[in-house]
Structure formats: C-alpha cells, structure tokens
Specification:
elongated, about 200 residues, mainly alpha, 6 helices
C-alpha cells in the first residue's frame, strides 16, 4: 500500500505543480484574482502531495498501527495547509473588492482553465479508485480536495467570463467564497484527524 501511495503522491505532485504554472500564467495575463488564488491552491496541493509522499514513504517502514498514525498525521498537515490557503483567498478577495483591477479575457485563457478543471476531475477519480483498493485518510483528503478544486476552477472560469461583461466585482466575491469554502472543508479534515490522533 505504501508503494502505491508513493506513486499516487508523485502523480499528484507533478500534475498540481503543472496546474499551478498554467494558472499563474493565465492569472498574470488576465489580471484575475480568482484564478491566481486557484493557482496558489494548486501550489498548496503540491506541498500537500509532498507531505503525503513522506507519509506513505514512512508507512512502508512502519507497522500497521504506526502507519495509520503517520497517514493520519499527513492528512492533518494537509488540512492545515488548506485552511491557511482558504484564509489567504478570503483576505485577497476582500482586498481586491476594496481596490478593483480590470480583467482581460481571451478564449485561450478559458480553454486552459477548462483543461485544468478536467485534470482535477481525473485526479479525483484516480484517487477514488486507489482508495477503494487501499483505504487511507490521506486519499480521502486528496479526493475531497480534487473534486472541490474542480468545482472551484469551473467557478473561476465563469468568473473570468463574466467579469469582462458585467461591471461588478465578481472576481473578488468569488475569491472570498472560494476561501471560505476551502477553509471550512479543511477545518472538517483537521477535526476528523484530531479526533483520530487523540483517541488512537
């Protein structure tokens, strides 16, 4: 199971970092805060996959009980990263709401963001299938994060499209909503893993 986890973590690390680079390019080119925050989220996911990689690598060397604790601890750290990421989104959304910035739109930006949403959907499906064979709290956290990220990315795509057509700070509002959503999801993960680590 540990070896499968290592491969899954490397897969996630590679894909998430590639998505971060794509969204960083689009956000800088278009001026979209929502896409920038989404890209930073992927950078956080890259770090999460590194934590997961360490957790699964330790699982190979430890007995079953210690392995479960190592994976739960890795899931807790991932949740912590996501919580801070969510707070960062909300803060930036409020700041952009106070100081709006014009956003530009090109169809190639929409295509690139659509591809990144599809990539996150595929990642979620891959982790879901692996978790069915090798259940782990780390996989459950990565599954939830992948599907949530897919929805968030689709929302940023809508925001990018509408921001240039409607004279309203959709981009800022969406960043705040994304931040709160990610933070709530992360807190749930932290609470679940805290209970496991304390009661185990």
């Amino acid at each position: 199971m540990g070896k499968t986890g290592v491969k899954a973590a490397i897969f996630g690390l590679t894909v998430n970092f590639a998505l971060f680079l794509i969204k960083l390019y689009v956000s800088i080119s278009s001026g979209s805060l929502a896409i920038y925050c989404d890209g930073i989220n992927n950078l956080g996911d890259t770090l999460s996959c590194i934590i997961a990689l360490v957790g699964f690598a330790l699982a190979i060397r430890l007995d079953e009980k210690k392995s479960s604790r190592a994976q739960s601890l890795a899931s807790f750290v991932i949740g912590l990263i996501l919580a801070f990421t969510g707070a960062y989104f909300a803060y930036n959304g409020i700041e952009r709401l106070m100081y709006p910035v014009p956003i530009s739109f090109l169809y190639k930006y929409a295509i690139l963001i659509s591809v990144t949403a599809l990539a996150k959907l595929i990642m979620g499906i891959v982790y879901f299938k692996i978790n069915k064979k090798h259940a782990s709290p780390v996989y459950k956290t990565l599954i939830m994060d992948s599907f949530l990220d897919c929805a968030v990315t689709l929302s940023t795509l809508i925001s990018l499209t509408l921001s240039v057509k409607i004279n309203f700070a959709i981009d800022s509002i969406l960043s705040i909503v994304i931040g709160i959503t990610v933070a709530i999801s992360a807190v749930k993960t932290l609470w679940a893993q805290c209970k496991y680590l304390i009661n185990d």
